[in-house]
Design brief:
Strand content of chain B: under 5%
CATH class of the largest domain in chain B: Mainly Alpha
Strand content of chain A: under 5%
CATH class of one domain in chain A: Mainly Alpha
Helix content of chain A: over 70%
CATH topology of one domain in chain A: MetI-like fold
Oligomer: heterodimer
Radius of gyration of chain B: 24 Å
Largest sheet of chain A: none
Number of domains of chain B: 2
Number of strands of chain A: 0
Largest sheet of chain B: none
Shape of chain B: globular
Structural class of chain A: mainly alpha
């Protein structure tokens, strides 16, 4: 009897917490379909009286957010694939190739992870300005092509590849590039999937650096556009909720589809001692 | 030490150089060099005139740091940032631990579903959800004050009242980030052997005593990791005040953060030397707080 009451209590608390957690997202979706002005009524309502998709149309016509959506997609896709290549090779090299100073170099990188990224941003802007890359896709993509955390993730996973396997291939005369392509890459597939989705979501969601380096509307990513529009259109609640849905929902759905890989990445990153 | 492989080491080293080149070039040019340059920049008067023509650039030694010490906005930003880190951080981890304990309990049902729901906010776009919260916080049309009204609490002007604006940002941060810590706490709880709890039970320890003397000490590594990553992340908060207050950090600078102050000085007013000094102070503060956390942990282990 006491156990039953406990079961009900624990699950009731969890359900209440889940309801509170979901409310902002559900309200965002609901308000994005309300007729203009309905989200600003008292008392506030949760459901639209007459659901409409008009605000979504307005996003793509009047506000030109389709362009920002495409920009976000281009930038996040480019960063994901380029960083998989760069971090994959570097992580494997740190885990499995024998060269002088390897461990010292790796500890320098780990120590640099303590430096918050905004510290690098001011000179980074000047460097990219000198390279003529301000307000270009490359200005957003290039600095994100390799991350220490990405190299670290790949290395942790690659450590478990047996040396005998690599040495046997070397005995048969395989070159290092062929070994990487034919033996290592297939083994790294799970961690590459993990790093890929983590990178895609992080790039899609990133705000500060795109805000700094993108100076023209035609290059804005979704978060930058949304932040600027939300200042200009503060009264258009329903329109802004539609914009938020357009920004948030793609990554949320992607996460739900590839959840297992994403959580695996969190756990590898979280147990580095 | 392993014996060298069948191929001579130089060949492996050549391959390593090739494999490392792209990654290290990017990290070096776009992260390590800028860090060093930022340090140098903080000793110059780099401003909009230097941006136009670098011959206007002068070394000014510690002038920027001295000016910071006299800048009331700097002290306000530092205070707000500490408030966010040392109130928001523990609250985030506390909520995360509570949810993790509930989900770890044998009584909980639908664990996978609950875990997904509680984690989902972590992957959402910060700017997007901040726009949503801006409306949820509205004193008249927002759902939050409506829900508080049911409990008999008078409407709070979350974003208009300087006393409540930081609380609004902390609530948002708890909602957004506690799912991440929850996942790591659940993993940590799963690693505690059941036999330890059984042994403590036989010794007559109650649930609370077992939590204090078995669960908490064995979660110490998780706490240390989360403490340091949360601290580093929270010290840099920027998008929340930027979006909630239209890029200002108001009302009355109540939500002005170090990150926002650096952005305004560096990229809105182009006082890049001054902004670099802000960035370095922030870095040193983060370093010091992380070092204290490591030291506390070591003392607990000793």
């Amino acid at each position: 009897m006491r156990r039953r009451a406990g079961t009900i209590l624990v699950n009731a608390v969890l359900a209440a917490g889940a309801a509170v957690t979901l409310t902002p997202i559900l309200w965002m979706i609901s308000a994005s379909t309300m007729p203009t002005g309905e989200a600003n009524t008292f008392p506030p309502s949760f459901f639209p009286s007459r659901p409409t998709l008009a605000h979504y149309g307005e996003l793509f016509t009047r506000l030109n957010l389709g362009r920002s959506f495409a920009n976000s997609l281009i930038v996040a896709t480019a960063v994901t694939f380029l960083s998989l290549a760069a971090n994959g090779m570097a992580g494997y090299a740190f885990a499995k190739l024998r060269f002088a100073g390897r461990d010292r170099l790796f500890s320098v990188l780990l120590a640099a992870m303590l430096v918050p990224t905004p510290v690098a941003m001011l000179p980074l802007f000047l460097i990219l300005r000198a390279m003529g890359l301000v307000n270009t896709y490359a200005g957003v993509v290039l600095p994100a092509v390799s991350t220490i955390l990405g190299i670290f993730l790949i290395r942790q996973f690659a450590l478990s590849i047996p040396d005998d396997l690599l040495d046997a291939a070397r005995l048969e005369g395989a070159g290092e590039l062929a070994i990487f392509r034919r033996i290592v890459l297939p083994l790294l597939l799970p961690v590459m999937t993990t790093l890929g989705i983590v990178t895609f979501l992080a790039t899609w969601n990133d705000f500060l650096w795109p805000l700094v380096v993108l100076t023209g509307e035609s290059r804005y990513t979704l978060p930058v556009s949304l932040a600027i529009l939300s200042g200009e259109h503060a009264q258009d609640t329903e329109l802004m909720m539609a914009g938020s849905v357009l920004t948030i929902l793609p990554v949320l759905l992607l996460f739900l589809a590839l959840q297992r890989y994403y959580i695996a990445g969190i756990l590898i990153g979280g147990v580095k001692e | 030490m392993r014996a060298p492989g069948p191929r001579s080491l130089p060949q492996e080293a050549r391959a390593a150089a090739l494999f490392l080149a792209p990654g290290l070039a990017v990290i070096g040019l776009f992260f390590l060099v800028p860090i060093a340059a930022s340090f140098l920049l903080s000793f110059t008067d780099f401003d909009i005139y230097a941006l136009a023509d670098t011959s206007n650039l002068r070394l000014v030694a510690l002038t920027n740091y001295a000016a910071l010490a006299r800048d009331p906005l700097f002290w306000i930003a530092l205070r707000n940032t500490f408030y966010f880190v040392f109130v928001g951080g523990p609250l985030t981890l506390g909520v995360a631990l509570a949810v993790a304990l509930l989900l770890h309990s044998k009584l909980a049902r639908w664990k996978g579903l609950f875990r997904t729901v509680f984690f989902a906010p972590y992957v959402t776009t910060l700017v997007g959800v901040t726009v949503v919260f801006r409306y949820l916080y509205h004193p008249r049309f927002g759902l939050l004050d409506r829900a508080l009204g049911w409990l008999g609490i008078a409407p709070i002007n979350w974003l208009g009242d300087p006393h409540w604006a930081m609380a609004a940002i902390i609530l948002l941060a708890i909602w957004k980030n506690s799912g991440y810590a929850m996942i790591l706490f659940i993993a940590g709880l799963g690693n505690i052997p059941e036999s330890l709890h059984e042994a403590a039970k036989i010794d007559g320890a109650g649930a609370l005593a077992r939590f204090r003397h078995v669960t908490l000490p064995l979660l110490a590594p998780t706490f240390l990791f989360l403490g340091i990553t949360t601290t580093i992340g929270y010290f840099q908060f920027f998008a929340e005040p930027y979006v909630l207050t239209g890029g200002v950090g108001g009302p009355l600078n109540a939500t002005l953060s170090m990150g926002l102050l650096m952005y305004k000085q560096g990229f809105r007013w182009w006082n890049m030397g001054y902004a670099a000094a802000i960035a370095f102070v922030l870095f040193l503060v983060i370093l010091a707080v992380s070092a204290v956390q490591f030291a506390l942990q070591r003392r607990r282990e000793a």
